[in-house]
Known about the structure:
α8 runs antiparallel to α9 (677-690), α12 (719-732) packs antiparallel against α13 and α28 runs antiparallel to α29. The chain is globular. 39% of the residues are buried. Helix content is 28%, strand content 28%. By secondary structure, the protein is α+β, with helices and mostly antiparallel strands.
Amino acid sequence: MLSKFETKSSRVKGLAFHPKRPWILASLHNGSIQLWDYKMGILIDRFDEHEGPVRGIAFHPSQPLFVSGGDDYKIKVWNWKTRRCLFTLTGHIDYIRTVFFHHENPWILSASDDQTLRIWNWQSRNCISILTGHNHYVMCAQFHPKEDLIVSASLDQTIRVWDIAGLRKKHAAGPTAAPAEFDHYRGGPGAQADLFGNTDAAVKFVLEGHDRGVNWVQFHPTLPFIVSGSDDRTIKLWRMNETRAWEVNTFRAHYNNVSSVLFHPRQEIIISNSEDKTIRIWDMPRAAALQTFRRESDRFWIVAAHPELNLFAAGHDGGLIVFKLERERPAHSLHQNNLYYCRDKELRLYDLSTADDSPILTLQRGNSTQMQPPKTMSYNPAEHAVLMTSTKEGGTYELLYLAKGTSGSIQGDPKRGTGQSAVFVARNRFAVLDKQAQTISIKDMNNEVVRVLKPPVVVNDMFFGGGRTLLLTSATSVVLFDMELRSTIAELTVNGVRSAVWSPDMSLVALLSKHTLVIADKQLEQLCLIHETIKIKSGVWDEVGSFIYTTLNHIKYTLPYGDNGIIRTIDQPVYLAKAKGKNITCLDREGRVRVFTIDPTDYRFKLALEKKNYNEVLHLIRTSNLVGQSIIAYLQRKGYPEVALHFVKDPTTRFELAIECGNLQVALETAKAVDKEECWRALAEASLKQGNHQILEMAYQRTKNFERLSFLYLVTGNMDKLRKMLKIAEMRNDHMSRYHNALYLGDVDKQVALLKEVGQLPLAYLAARTHGLAEEANEILAAAGRESEPDMPQGGELLKTPTPILRQHDINWPHLPIARSFFEEGLLGNAPADASQPTAESELMQEANQWANAEADAAQVQSQAADTGDSAGEVMPEGGGWDFGGDFELPTASAETAPVTAGDSNTFVPPLPGKSFADNWVQNSALAADHAAAGSFDSAMQLLNRQIGAANFAPLRPLFMQASVAAKAYIPANASVPPLALPLQRAGSRSLPAATFKLTDLTSKLQEAYAATTAGKFSDALMVYKSVLYSIILTVVDTVDEEAQIQQLVDTCREYILGLKMDLTRRTLSLESDPTRVLELAAYYTHCHLQPAHLQLTLLQAASLCAKVRNLALASLFARRLLELNPPQGLGQKARAIIQHCGNNPTDSTQIEYDQYNPFVVCGISYTPIYRGSPSVQCPFCRTSYKPEHSGTLCSICEISRIGAPASGFRCRQE
C-alpha cells in the first residue's frame, strides 16, 4: 500500500471522493464534516451543523452538492461552492447510517436505525418512497450503478435486493396525486400509494448466510456480484441473475467485525477493513488474501474508492488515509527512437518515428491479481535484453533476452534474482542492490556474480552514473561511486532522491525528489535547486539542454542555471519518455503512449541567451512571436534591455527600457508620446548623467524647471539664454529667480534694483556700496532717511560669477564611441545608418527651433498683456512653450550637434553583464532568509506566504533591511562614487548568503526575556519574546537538531506571549466587578507551558486570587500543583498557608469555565478553553489554537500569519 495523504482528527465514520477534483469528504464522530485537498494536503473547509456523529457522506456525481446523514436523524444537502447547507430532510426517527446519490435521477437513498430505507427527491425535497422489511438496524444501502436496483444490509443478518423499476417509471411519467392520509407516513406528497404493499419498490432477493449482523454491502460496478461484510468476521461474495441470487465464496481472515468492504473498480480484487485494525486485499476468484496493512492502535470503520482514479481511502479512529495499492508509473526505457514499456502484462515497443505500437512478449501468465507490475526497466541495446525490477517478494529482478526480429518470445530462460534495484553498467554487466545486506553485486549476463561491492553509505536506490560509476542515493545525500576503485568520487547533500536523469552527453544530472529538483554537473556540483509545492512525477532532457519535468497537473521546464516556467497544464499525471523539438512523448497511468505538442520557444530563447548563442537568439526573435511581460522582465533581469526594446510597443514600458539601457534617442521619442512629467524628469536625470545637455534642456523646459534650466545655461556658458531666463523671471514675478539669474549674469544693477523693489534697502545699499555704485548707494541712503553712512563690514569680497572662458552650449559632452551590440546589429540586418535620414539630434534641434527666437523687452510684453487682458499663466497652443500669457520666448536649444559614429577601429565594445550574487542566492535557496539577504523582498514575502501563511509583513520590515545590509561588506571608494559592496557568503559548495540571525543569538535573547518575566516587567518581556519570534523567521540553521530547536523556540515564545497577554488583560479588569473573568484568565495562565520557575509564580498568583474571592477548592488545587513542582522555601510556605486556609472541605463561591481534568488549549483571541476533540484552527507559523469562527483573521500572537491559512510549513534549513 502506497500512502498518499493522511490526516489526524476524530474518528472518521464516512468518506466520499469527488469525481473530478482532488477532494475527499470525511464525516467525523464528533459531528464535523471536513473537506480535504489530498493533493495539496490542506483542509479546504469544515461544516459543523450536525448535532452528534455524522455517519453517511456522499458527493453528487455532477452537481456542486454533497449529502450527509447523522445521529441527529437529519439528512442535510450542502452546496460546496457557497459553503452552506441548502436544506434539511427529516423523516427518519433514528440514527442515519448511509446516504448516497443516484447516478442519474435526483434521488438520495438513506439507511437508518429505524429499520427503513428512504428515497428522497432532492429537487422537490420530498420523500418519494419508504422501503420496509428489515427488522433491525439498516446499516448500509446503495443504488446499483446501472440498473434499477437497491441493495441493503441489516443487523437482522440479511441482505435485501430491491427492484425500483416501478418507482423510476412512475417518476418518469410525472408524479401522481396520492391520498392525503398517507402523507404523514410517506414524508410528503408524491410517495407510494401503499405503505406496506410498496408497489414502487419491491424486494427481489433476500440473501441469508451471515451468522451475525451485516455492516456493509455493495454491487459490483460491471458484473452481477454483491459483496458483504459482517460482524461474524467474514466477507461473502454473492452472485445473482434475473431469477435468483446465491452465495459464491466466503473470505475468512479478519478476527473482528468487518466494518466496510468494496470491489476494486478495475481489477478482480476486494478491499475490506475491520475493527481488527487491518485493511485486507483479497483475490476475488480464489477467495485468498493477497495483502494485509495493519495499524497499531486505530480501528478501521470505512473504506471508499475513487470513481475514476486508482485511489482508495480508509477512515479510522485517528483520522483518514488516502492510498494506492500499487505504483501507477509504467516502467519504461528509451533507446534512440524505440520506447520499451509495460502495459497489461505485456512488454511493448513503441516506435517514435512511425508511431507503431506493438507487443513484444507476455511478461507473466495467470491471474492478474497475482502479478505486480515492474517498478523499473533498463534496456541493453548491445545484448537486446531488458532488466526489470519489481517489489514482489521484497524486491526481485528479471533479465530477459528479447528475440531479434520476432515478437512474443524470448531467447532462453529468464534470469531472476533478489534485489531492490538493478541497472546495466556495461554491455555485459549489470549491478544489483541488496538493501537488507547493503551490498552491490556486479553480475554478468548469465546472472553470475563477478564481484561484490560495499557501498560507502546506507543506500536506498541506485542509478547508472556513466562509465564505471554508480549514482547511489541515501536518505540525505547522493554519492557518485567508482566501482573499480571502490571509492567515492563526489557527494551532494540532497534529501529523498527518487530518480536521477542524465542528460544525453552525461554532463548534467537531474535529481528528482518528492518536492525538489536539483540540477548538478557530472562532479555533483549543484547548479540550481527548484522547489515545488506539488509532487514531481518525472523528467527528461531535450536535445538543446533544457530539463522538462512534470508535476501532478503541469508540464514545466528548468534551465541548468535555475530559470524555470510552465509549458502547459495537464488533466492527469503523465510520465515523460522523450522531448524533441515541439513534441513530448510520454506515458499515462494506463500505460498508453501520448504525444503532446508544445511551444519550446520560451525556454529555448532563455537557454540560448544563457549560453550566449546569439545566432540562435536572433533566429528565435525573427521567427517566433516572443511577446509578454515575462520575456521583457527576463531580458531586463539578464541585462539585455536593448533587446527587450524590440518586443515592446507600449510607450511607457519602452521609455523605462530605454532609460535602463541608456538609449536617449528612444527615450526622447517615447517621452514625447507619453508626455508625463515623471517621464521628462527621468529623461532629464539620464541626460545629465550622459552629459547630453541638449536633451536635458528640453526636459527641463517641458517640466518648467526654471532654476535648473538657469543653472544649466550658467555651467555651459550660454549667457544669451541666461538673459532670456532673467526676463522670463521678471514676467513670472519670481523675485528669487530674478535675483539668481542676475547673480549668474553678474548684473549688479539688476540685483540692486530688485532689492530696492522688494523693500530690502539695507541689502540694496550694501550691494551698491560694495560694487562701487556710489550714486546709487547715496540715493538708497536718502530714500531711507539716513544722513550719515552706516559702518560697512571689513574684508568683504565681490559676489560675482566668473565669466565662462570655454563655452560649450552648442555641443554635448564627448562620449566614448560604443559599437552596436550583436543583437542590435542583427536586428537591424547589419545595415549601416543612412546619412540621408535625420538623426535623433537633428530632430531634437528642429523641435527646439520651434520655440520662438525673437526677443521682446519687458515693457512690450507688459503692454501686450495689458491690451489683451491676458494674464501670465494662461495656456498657449501646442508648441508655444511654457504656459504663459505673453509673447516672450524661451531660449532656443542649439542646432549644432556632433554626431557619434560607431564604425571606426577604436570603437569600444562594452562587456556583457554577469549574474549577480543576489540572483544566485535567490536561485539556490528556498528560504525566505536568503531571499531577504539578497534584497529580493517580494520573493521572500511570497515564500513566507506559502510556507507560514504570512499576511502582515510590517513587523518584519526592519529585519528584512537588516538581513539585506548584513549580507554585504562595504568598502569606501572615491568621494564621487558609492562604496563597493562585497557579498558575505556562508561556507558550502553553493552560493548562499551569510546568516544574519543565528540560533545562539536567539537563545541569548530568550534568556533576556526570561529575566524580564521573572522581574515582573511583562510589557518589556512581551516585546522581547515577539522579537525572538520575528527573528526566527529569518534564521538559518544547518542541522536537523538545530531545526528542532528552532521549532521548540517557536513553541516557547508562543506560550509566553499567550500567557503574558492573558495576564496583562487580567490586570485591566477589577476583581470586585468581574471576578469570574479574572479567575478564568488566571487559571488559563497556569496551563501555558512555561519554565518551572515562572509556572510556580503563575500558580501562586492563581491560588491567591482564588482565595481572595472564596474559591477555596480552586485555590487549594493550584497550591497543591505548586507544591508538586518542588518550589523554593518561600513559595512553598505560602502554598501551604493557602491550603491550610482552605480547610478540609473547600468549596467555590464563584463558578468559572474551567475543567482541570479535561485537557485543553487556550484560544489566542477569546482567551477561552478549547477542549480536546473540539473543532479548532491553528496559526500556520506559531501554531496557536483558535476557535473556528476566527479562521481567516490575523494571528494575535505572532501578528504575522493568517489563522487557518493553507501553508506548506516553516523552513529554516536548506536541504
